[in-house]
Please model this.
Amino acid sequence: MKNDICERTFVFAVRVVKLCQFLDKQAGVGRTLGKQLIRSGTSIGANVEEAQGGQSRADFLSKISIACKEARETLYWLKLLEAAEVIHVDRLKEIKAEANELVGILTTIIKNTKENSK
Model:
């Protein structure tokens, strides 16, 4: 399970980077939103990786919780790009679905870690 979420968040980050490379070529709001998206979208995997080396269960939980918050923020930016018609809905469908799944997975990891701490 640990390796799966690490790999999945890494692959997601690569997809975000590619999307942001596309946004960076646009003038104005697309580029600005892309800068927000790249920060949150790549931070998910970075925090998941940090959690793997957590010094304690509390440290692990803290890093996974940050990753979950970043996934939620990423989903927000993706929805905004879609709603503002900066990127066509079809181009965002799969990456939005993956962001949503990552939120669910990370939320489950948080819940299970808390329950196992009792």
The chain has a mean pLDDT of 95. Residues 25 and 31 are 7 Å apart (CA to CA). The two ends are 21 Å apart (CA to CA). Residues 89-116 form the longest helix (28 residues).
